[in-house]
Amino acid sequence: MNLRPILMAGAISAVALPAAADCAYENDVSLRSLSAAFEAWTAVTDAMAECGNFEAELSQEFRTLQPEAMAANPALYQLGGVSNGTVTPLLNAETIRPLDDLVEQYGQQLRPNQLIRINGQTMAIAMMVNTQHLMYRADILEELDLDVPETWDEVLEVAAAIDEADMVDYPLGATMATGWNLAQDFNNMFLGYGGQFWNADGTPSVNSEAGVSALETMMEMTEYMDPEYLVSDSTYVQQQLQQGRIAMANLWASRGAAMDDEDESQVVGLVDAAAAPRAMEGGPPATTLWWDGIVIAANIPDEEAAAAFQVAMEGIDREMVEANNDAAIWLIEGYEPGRLAEGAIATASASPAPAAYPSTSQMGLMHSALGNELPAFFTGDVSAEEALAAVEAAYITSAQEAGVLE
Amino acid sequence: MKFKTFAAFVAPSLVMMLLFIAAPLVSVFIGSFQLHQPVLQEVEEESCTPGFTGQTCTTTIVTRPVIAESGEMLTTTEWVGWTNYTRVLNPEAAWDAVTSFDWNALMQVDFWAALRFTLMFTLVTLPLVIGVGLAIALAVNNAAKHVRGPVIFVSLLPFIITPVIGALSIRWLFIGDGILTAGLEAWLDRDLALFAQAWTIELMMLFYRVWHVAPFAFVIFYAGLQTVNQDTLESAIIDGANRFERLRYVIVPHLAPLIVFIALIHLMDAYRVFEEIVGFTSQAHVISLQWLTYDFLQPDDSGNRAFGRASASAMLTMVGIVVLLIPLLRRTWRDHKGGSH
Questions:
Q1: CB contact at 8 A, A285 and A192
Q2: For residue A206, what are the domain limits?
Q3: Are the Cβ atoms of A89 and B56 closer than 8 angstroms?
Q4: Is A15 a residue whose pLDDT tops 70?
Q5: Closest alpha carbon within chain A to B176
Q6: Does B111 lie in the same domain as B72?
Q7: What residues of chain B lie within 8 A of the CB of A128, using their CB?
Q8: What is the predicted pLDDT for the residue at B189?
Q9: Are residues B133 and B235 in the same domain?
């Protein structure tokens, strides 16, 4: 079966750039990195490549490849790009090394909040934060004299008004592609309604009032969305916004800069960002907080690790940020939040603040169960309660199998 | 041939088959009755998440695997009998649905939904592939000699394209306001969303598979047509047989063994339908058995995979193929013993 080409399709790009001038020193250790493939990683790995002898692999499937690649001895990549979701298997298998010595020796430029500490040991260096927040067409809202919505009820009212005025194909977009994306949108809404994923004894508790409310709100959203929403992933929603086909979307902050990319976007300067809407009054914004950052493999010689860390520091330095200011919400010294970063900052500093995405084995299992079982609700085959009961059953099966539940 | 010579010729392929077919099969078979689990421990862990101004640190109890001194995760392997099969088949829910004649409830169990689509897909594409392949072969065979080369080349193109790429191309032609959807919308004067419901997606999958595999049937049939006995054909014409009668009584019987051959290959291929599901991201509406196995094997963000269930689902897929092939194999066996070919 041709798994490999599918996994790679459209996603992979291996770049090996010759040594260029902008690195402070010449790297003479051969290094490789594996990370996700969005804009910020392109910027960072390009900056790393300037030091020479460095090969970056940017792949949408990095989350599948990374645990195995890091577990090899010697590891296939010295450097890894992770988020708080994808760092879990690496922490579990102890295939990444503590970085405290290296930070002390080479990481003076790092801010204290970039150091991801687990039990006091620095295991990763965060470079940016990410969150889903509301991106909207400021021009349309202004023309219709509408306020920027702050809750999902308001979003639906605004969507109805935009629909009435018939200014775009669909008022709303959402990353509701079956699987990971749909599950994440549910997580956002569920946490926004104050939901708890587990009971104290570790059994799942998504089939609750919060769960049903979350699904009902999502179903109401779909009335204003492209009927093909079950295949729309982040890139698809980004393109819908760029092409002026939708007016609002709760989309990743890392996709913001693309709105002002003149090569792709027909709405340059027209899209603004606001905090993720709240699901209920007085609740947190219905979203989760993420960080992306760098880890270094455990199964490599210390010299290689030192070289990798130095190259990484060149990748996430002030010059890189100054050249790519709008590519992400950087945590790095020298970052000037732009117009499209306002939404993410408002989201993160909201009170009460949204939760960070929980990086645990249980959450991985829960995320898969949600992604597999929720679509039946959206295709109209089952009720919200039935779908959530199916999620709990699927979770219990896989959790028992994985040994995290009796 | 002497037995020794025969053995020397056959031995390398036998070894290969044992190594690459039998051994993996046995290991999957064994795996389907086992459960691998990491040895876990609960640890209190303080973890810090960056914010814009500072960090938020929380202390929670997390589950971490126990790491052995060799650096490997400690795992246990247990014999669990039919548990993996039960988890895949969910016989209780399925039986409840069957006894209460609730089709929708049955379709909520992944395995049965996948089986429904896989069987439908296999059985619908089979006659279409054979029919379309035969039609192209007859058309090319009757075409003027100097255009045959180019016509053969063009008809083979769909078969040359990598399946996933082909599926993705169809997806991009039809998704959202893709060129063909936009064209259809203009033609029918209505708004279409082909990826919004199951039946349109299934239709596109059927179309794609027939388009992709018909050239294979065509090549085989075209070769077969070259060996049709011209004398029989001529005498049929003299006897007053029309075109259809010649096809029905001379050509098709001549091609019968090839039809069985194509049916065998196609059943095996189509039952493992997978590229269409991935290419069209149709999981919400339609899944297949092979996709189910793949989904069990895909690790989630925290690296969990369901090896046991994947093995069970793979074994069930194999059993399904064997059941489908039995009638055709029996026919071939009968012909073989009858010595007609």
A1: yes
A2: 131-287
A3: no
A4: no
A5: A228
A6: no
A7: none
A8: 84
A9: yes
Interchain CB distance below 8 Å, A2 and B290: no
Residue B137 belongs to a domain: yes
Residue A17 scores a pLDDT above 60: no
Asked whether residue B187 falls in the same domain as residue B295, the answer is yes
Q: What are phi and psi of A151, to 5 degrees?
A: -130, 165
Judgement on whether residues A158 and A237 belong to the same structural domain of the protein? yes
Cβ B300–A381 below 8 Å, yes or no?
Answer: no
Interface test with A, best of B273, B302, B307, B318 (most A CBs within 10 A): B302
- Residues B69, B180, single domain; the answer is no
CA distance A294 to A308: 10
DSSP SS3 for A188: helix
Q: Per the domain annotation, does B308 fall within a domain?
A: yes
The answer to the question of residue B279 being in a domain is yes
In the predicted model, what is the mean pLDDT of chain A?
Answer: 89
| Count of domains observed in chain A | 2
pLDDT of residue A321: 92
Examine the pLDDT at A283 and tell me if it is beyond 80.
Answer: yes
Query: Residue A11 pLDDT more than 50?
Result: no
Q: Which residues of A touch B306 (CB under 8 A)?
A: 398, 401
User: What is the residue whose two structure tokens read 């499209």?
Assistant: A340
Q: Is A291 helix (H, G, I), strand (E, B) or coil?
A: strand
d(CA A365, nearest CA chain B) in Å: 7
Q: Which residues contact B110 (CB under 8 A, 6 or more apart)?
A: A372, B287, B292
pLDDT 10s digits, B53-104: 677 788 888 888 888 887 788 888 889 999 999 999 999 989 999 999 888 8
Residue A276 neighbours by CB under 8 Å, 6+ apart: A131, A132, A133, A134, A188, A250, A285, A286, A287, A343, A347, A354
Optimal mutation site among A6, A73, A117, A365, interface B, most CBs of chain B within 10 A: A6
Judgement on whether residues A122 and A234 belong to the same structural domain of the protein: no
Domain extent for B42: 36-78
Q: Are residues A367 and B301, on separate chains, in Cβ contact within 8 Å? A: yes
Identity of the residue in A89, A117, A381 whose CB atom sits nearest the CB atom of B108: A381
User: Both A135 and A115 in a single domain?
Assistant: no
Assign residue A206 the CATH number of its domain.
3.40.190.10
Measured between beta carbons, the chain A residues lying within 8 angstroms of B200 are none
* Predicted confidence (pLDDT) per residue in A227-274, tens digit: 989 988 888 999 999 999 999 999 999 888 888 888 889 999 999 999
pTM: 0.85
**Does some domain include residue A404?**
no
Two structure tokens written together for A123: 């295991």
- Min Cα distance B266 → chain A (Å) is 15
* In a shared domain, residues B68 and B212: no
Question: Closest Cα to residue A380, out of A222, A209, A231?
Answer: A222
Q: Which residues of A touch B308 (CB under 8 A)?
A: 401
Do residue B57 and residue B154 come from a single domain?
no
Contact A161, A144 (CB under 8 A): yes
Residues of B in contact with A182 (CB under 8 A): 284
> A67-71, A264-268, B1-5, B253-257: which has the minimum mean pLDDT?
B1-5
- Asked if the structure places residue B271 within a domain, the reply is yes
Quick one: tokens of A146? 């509408």
Give B-chain residues touching A10 at CB under 8 angstroms: 168
Domain-located, residue A385:
no
Asked if the Cβ–Cβ distance from A94 to B306 is below 8 Å, we say no
CB pairs under 8 A between A and B: 188
